[in-house]
Amino acid sequence: MGESAEWRVGLGHDTHRLEEGRRLVIGGVEIDHHLGAVAHSDGDVLLHALTDAILGALGWGDIGEWFPDTAAEHEGADSAELLSKVLNRAFAAGWHINNVDGIVFAQKPKLSPYKEQIANRVAELLQVSAERVNVKAKTGEKVGPVGREEALCAEVVIMLVKKPE
Ligand code: CDP
Ligand code: ZN
Prior knowledge:
globular, 165 residues, binds zinc ion, binds cytidine-5'-diphosphate, five-stranded mixed beta sheet, two-stranded antiparallel ribbon, CATH 3.30.1330.50
């Protein structure tokens, strides 16, 4: 009897406050909008949720433990770099990405024009084909912090697999 593959599911969530005149970067894609994320880093909610999802799947804690936002070296850090540090550790431990599903919660701007580009960029960062990455968007129905355009949120689930040797 051959050994079977090992599977792990992980969940990530992130929130950033929105302010006038800041950069809005979602899934590594620069979005043209008058509001942007308040953050030490580039405030990429989707990549932060994705990084946490990988850490969660592997039982490796959370992004704040790996990259404390008090550390000066992480000021303005590119979220793609933080993701790649975690991802490379996962690869080194023999894990592969099976698939990713995510939701970005934003009242505005309309993200449908960017969804494909975001999914493609996330797939590129994860080194998987684009059909393994799905990105969805939801408004806040004009209620709550998302609906009032005070904040942006993201949720991600990821499935990791380790094939038998
Ligand atoms: O229709 P429902 O109430 O389920 O969702 P919604 O939050 O009103 O969003 C409707 C659709 O708009 C979503 O399914 C997304 O495809 C799109 N959307 C978007 O493109 N950009 C956003 N920031 C939010 C939603
Ligand atoms: Zn974040």
